[in-house]
Amino acid sequence: MEISTHQEPFIYVNDKRYEITRDCDPEMSLNDFLRDTLNLKGTKVMCREAGCGCCTVCAVYKHPATGEIESKPVNSCVTPLYSAAGWHIVTIEGIGGRSQSAGYHPIQASLADGFGSQCGYCSPGFVMSAYSQLRDNPKATKLEVEHFFDGNICRCTGYRPILDSMKSFACDAGKAGGCLEVEA
């Protein structure tokens, strides 16, 4: 009798480990897993083509070539769940919120205070894109911050307040205190 040592693949979401069971649809996207299985509805879904950015989450993983820990924004709507096995995923619910004891994350608060959220549908994607990229590049310039959002679309055309809110975290923003520590 042979005993299998194979373990089910797993994924961490907001610091909690979840097994990806064998009966899971092999074509399930990370977005469907987050929204339908884990009931984390803050991560939105719209185009299912990686064209709008509303489904952006932060993926933290070990780079296969360098072994360095990286965090990158990923479009969860086109990321197959099985390809995210072993990753740590941070969603909008994982960084802060009204019902959490720590309250809103500074990026969330800045977007709201700067009137950068009109209908609000794109807001989680913008926040998670900024959060992900500021983790890897905490000393980003205003120009770099602006390029963080090349894959995010606001259908209400509220780009100016969104960008102004996000650029406030740039090291050359001219504010006291400098860059944001995103782990705050």
UniProtKB/TrEMBL annotation:
GO terms for molecular function: 2 iron, 2 sulfur cluster binding; iron ion binding; oxidoreductase activity. Its cofactor is [2Fe-2S] cluster; Mo-molybdopterin; FAD. It holds the Pfam family Fer2_2. Keywords: 2Fe-2S, Iron, Iron-sulfur, Metal-binding, NAD, Oxidoreductase. Residues 14-80 form the 2Fe-2S ferredoxin-type domain. Residues 91-166 form the [2Fe-2S]-binding domain. Belongs to the xanthine dehydrogenase family. This is 2Fe-2S ferredoxin-type domain-containing protein.
